[in-house]
Amino acid sequence: METLINRCRRLITVTKTDYVRDIIKNINWNCRLISIRGARGVGKTTLMLQYLKLNNIDYKTMLYVSLDSNYFTRHTLLEFVEKFHLQGGQHLFIDEVHKYPGWSNEIKEIYDSYPNIKVVISGSSLLDILNADADLSRRCVPYEMQGLSYREYLAMVHGIRLPSVTLEELLKSPSTFCDKINKKFRPMTHFEAYLRQGYYPFVLEGETEYPLRIENVINFILEIELPQLCGVDVSNIRKIKSLLTILASKVPLQVDMTKISAAAEIARTTLLSYLQILQRSRLLNLLYSGEDSVKKMQKPDKIYLENPNIIDVLSLTGGNIGTVRETFVVNQLSYQHKVEYTKAGDLIVDKKYTIEIGGKSKDGKQIANVPDSFIAADDTEYANGNKIPLWAFGFLY
Question: Domains of the chain by range and CATH?
Answer without folding.
Answer: 2-144 (3.40.50.300), 150-395 (no CATH)
